[in-house]
User: Which sequence fits this backbone?
């Protein structure tokens, strides 16, 4: 099956932007960004991965954006407190982290590996099981969780090389988690922290497959719950070195992690397999998944502007232009107008507005 990705279209859109709303008074395809036309054409989509997570899915969320760079350098962000180097030959340091997730009778799960030992404690009145069927899509409890709280988020610099990328995404991850964790608590759903890899070369290897920067600029692999943000995937010629553009892409990929935790990826890909991934119905299902995380990205961006940090309301316009350029009338991700349009819905900062599963086909074309 082909990968899911953005097809950036540089330059201003062929129509004026509508006014943006202010804040309120797998064995499936791989979601991701595709190479900007004037830098490198969209690469071939990678094959589907074998399902492995939660009894169904090593789904890989893939965003192919561009081509550049050499070698492979990465960093795995195991938690906001623990960063594990993935450079060849680098030592790994055992760390212990305690996370409190969602609101229950208290249960504790301990996971141990050679790299990290993590204890996750769940304390909630009633953590819901991961939904299936329509309850994982249009009826998902996460869609009733309201909006994200405002917060200051200002990662250092921007990810233009390996060390800068490591520092940037290590600082970005806790921001995105702070935005999402209260929504999981309100929905009574279990949350856990994804890992983040920042490859600086042309190839990223994951349990979901080996992906080059010709194929993917950013992607999510559900089998190891890891977001991959290759340095070469987001060139300055496209992002203009604007930190908020990088954060919007990161929030998009984090959105696939949210879909994985809440059953949406598994159910969406089950339906895709039934209908055929390359059929009109299968492609529409894929667009619904991708456009939903566009909306999630808009929510996060809205939550960090005008908070006393580095980002203010005018920065929204540059990100909207960037997001419009991410749409290239892709059959897997949607028309440019819809790619931008669902991001704009997100800046209303109400997750119920991100219910692509109930939207008419014209809004996810």
Assistant:
């Amino acid at each position: 099956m082909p990968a899911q990705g953005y097809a950036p279209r540089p330059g201003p859109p062929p129509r004026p932007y509508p006014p943006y709303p202010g804040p309120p008074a797998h064995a499936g395809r791989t979601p991701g960004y595709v190479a900007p036309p004037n830098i490198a054409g969209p690469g071939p989509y990678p094959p589907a991965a074998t399902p492995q997570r939660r009894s169904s899915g090593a789904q890989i969320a893939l965003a192919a954006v561009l081509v550049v760079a050499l070698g492979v350098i990465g960093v795995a962000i195991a938690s906001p407190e623990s960063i594990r180097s993935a450079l060849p030959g680098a030592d790994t340091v055992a760390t212990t982290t305690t996370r409190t997730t969602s609101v229950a009778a208290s249960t504790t799960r301990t996971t141990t590996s050679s790299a990290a030992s993590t204890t996750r404690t769940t304390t909630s009145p009633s953590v819901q099981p991961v939904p299936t069927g329509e309850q994982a899509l249009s009826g998902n409890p996460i869609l009733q969780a309201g909006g994200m709280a405002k917060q200051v988020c200002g990662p250092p610099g921007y990810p233009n090389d390996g060390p800068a990328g490591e520092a940037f995404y290590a600082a970005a991850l806790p921001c995105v988690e702070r935005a999402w964790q209260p929504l999981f608590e309100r929905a009574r759903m279990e949350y856990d922290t994804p890992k983040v890899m920042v490859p600086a070369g042309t190839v990223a290897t994951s349990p979901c497959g080996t992906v080059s920067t010709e194929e993917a600029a950013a992607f999510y692999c559900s089998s190891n719950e890891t977001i991959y943000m290759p340095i070469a995937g987001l060139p300055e010629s496209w992002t203009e070195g604007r930190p908020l553009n990088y954060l919007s892409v990161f929030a998009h990929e984090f959105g696939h992690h949210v879909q994985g935790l809440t059953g949406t990826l598994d159910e969406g890909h089950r339906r895709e397999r039934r209908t055929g991934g390359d059929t009109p119905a299968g492609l529409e299902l894929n667009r619904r998944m991708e456009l939903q995380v566009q909306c999630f990205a808009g929510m996060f961006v809205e939550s960090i502007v005008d908070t006393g940090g580095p980002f203010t309301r005018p920065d929204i316009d540059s990100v909207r232009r960037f997001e419009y350029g991410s749409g290239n009338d892709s059959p897997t991700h949607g028309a440019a107008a819809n790619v931008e349009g669902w991001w704009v819905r997100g800046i209303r900062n109400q997750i119920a507005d991100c219910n692509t599963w109930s939207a008419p086909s014209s809004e996810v074309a």
Remarks:
- The mean pLDDT is 75.
- The chain has one domain: 53-90+131-364.
- Residues 162-187 form the longest helix (26 residues).
